[in-house]
Amino acid sequence: MKNKNQSAAPQKVHILALLTALLLSFAAPAAVQTGGVAAGEELPVSPNQAQGPTDAAEMEAFMDDLFARHMDEYHIAGAAVAVVKDGQLFFAKGYGYANLENGIPVDPEQTIFRIGSTTKLVTWTAVMQLVEQGKLDLDADVNTYLDFQIPDTYPQPITLRHLMTHTAGFEDLFLDFVSLEEIEDALPPGAFLASHIPARVFPPGEVAAYSNYGAALAGYIVARVSGQSYDQYIQEHIFDPLGMAHSSALATLHPDVISLVSVGYMYEDDAFEIFPKFYGPSDLAPMGFMAASATDMARFMIAHLQGGFYGDPAAEVRILEEATARQMHSTLYTSDPRLLGTAYGFFDFSDNGQRTIGHSGTAEPMHSLLLLLPDQNLGVFVAYNTLGAGDLTIQHLGFQRAFFDHYYPAPVVEPIQPPTDFAEQASHFVGSYRMTRSAYTTLEKFRGALGMTVIQISDPGDGTLAMISPWGEWRFVEVEPLYFRQVDAPFYIVFREDDRGRITHLFTDYTPQFGFERLNWYETPGFNMALFIGCVLVFLSMIIIALIRAIRNRRQTGVQERNPKGARTASWIILVICILNLLFVAGLFLWNNPYPSLGIPLQFQVVLGLGVLSAVLTVGALVYMVLAWKDRYWGVAYRVYYTLVTIAAVAFVWFLNFWNLLGWRY
Fold this sequence. Notes:
Layout: H1 9-19, E1 33-34, H2 56-73, E2 78-85, E3 88-99, E4 104-105, E5 113-114, H3 119-132, H4 160-165, H5 191-195, H6 212-226, H7 230-242, E6 247-248, H8 255-258, E7 265-268, E8 271-274, H9 285-288, E9 291-292, H10 294-305, E10 309-311, E11 316-318, H11 322-329, E12 347-348, E13 357-363, E14 366-373, E15 378-384, H12 398-407, H13 422-425, E16 431-435, E17 454-458, E18 465-469, E19 472-480, E20 483-486, E21 492-497, E22 503-508, E23 516-518, H14 525-555, H15 559-562, H16 565-591, H17 602-630, H18 636-658
Antiparallel strand pairs: 1-3, 2-3, 2-15, 3-4, 5-9, 6-9, 7-8, 10-11, 12-13, 13-14, 14-15, 16-17, 16-23, 17-18, 18-19, 19-20, 20-21, 21-22, 22-23
Helix pairs in contact: 3-6, 14-16, 14-18, 16-17, 16-18, 17-18
């Protein structure tokens, strides 16, 4: 194992944010299995049942094989899994290492993982506790509970119901979310949230757009209303009652548990390396800073599956009233009644005919997934400690796919024939669609230009629609107007039209957390990358042409003098514009981070200034372009070329402005 110098971490983190997939191409050492069935856990183990998992020994064999394959394929250092059934722990086991350097294996009870956004389920549980007590109203304006104001961009106020379903309409931002250095002078509670309010870009309730900020805001409301800090409230009202002794809601873990936290890893150059340690504002803890062991999460799952009730040999407790727990598991929002939607903080991950609710989480480099099957009284939690395991915690894929296909095989999917006239309609749906979980008003919007938040719908010509997404490629057949089923699976997509019959949105069973907006041609990654590359090539050509002209002028004395002063000024302006734009492009790629969670470094702030200076000079280039034709600077061929370069400069200004890279927009 290599322990990288921490000073090189920021650049590596930026690169990894874009190129995580490249880490999946190496081999990993064999996993070490530890813990055994329910090892080290005081919870009683349930007897075998007749449905789904029925035998703990059989499950151990299945999990051993599954984790061995996954950990080898995805190069994972350590992982843990816990399964609960009928109110008791059914199975728990650790795999691989929590600390490779010291040879410490993963223990499902002792080893603590950062669980990322799975934390949100604990936050929403706290919200519902306060709703039970009459201290919170799900339909009240959230400004009622805050000591700062969310702007009234739309007439409709944002409510806790909107926050729970991610339909508040916030854009998605990451600025200043984490730091590589621990913050010594902590901001007062709420200060970060007040100073980092994302723009409201959709009316509340219109579309789902997953929002970390919304969950953090809900956690702050819990603290405000309860009179306790968020972590104190969670500790007293959830962790302590459930006996979750190996859990923490603090952004910075307590010394009592920090020694049990798994080391985070990434796999690079055929070896595991320690991933940089991140720190973040305490205001963001409710969105994803929680740390817990697998068996602690088992206790949380049992409480939810038992209607808020938890009992062990020592005590019986209730964290929610039964009616409230059932309410939390019921559907609260869907983009379309025919699609899977969102419960009270849980997402509908139903699969293979089994109603399933859950949540996944990422706290780089760790990943987690929690699944509840209420009808089966069964819950599953899995956590990994290595970057690249995120593919295993995507709903319906990875671990969930393997688990469901083994224990709840899919019903036979009947083949379906496409409508006979669909070929005539297919072009109506073809296009690029951007996730509603996107940035709109800041430079983070640029990740859309890279295609990172876009899916493509195309017509393969066989009566289906083809979807190319970050998670896979699938075919869909129309079963009703605007309603399509996956060819080989029972998953659906729905298109939304406006009052003029134009397709505006796409929603899927795979992503109840967000929808997709149809893009205009000038918003698509294909057009923008072609424009970007074309502009860069033109700017490079100007550098070459300028060098050739300079050499020619040296060899042919007097040429420069025959050119009027205006022509010389025009040449210098366009040359400087090209140099500035190329320097901007170089700075953009050196920064290499469309998710500025670590903040905007001074160097890139200077780069942004280059874009502003170039835009100002481009106005001058336009003036001289007109003068060049009016006063007949140079020959016709060079005037045409000068015009082409000026048009490229104008196009580049448009590009920068469209993607919020013109100026300091963050």
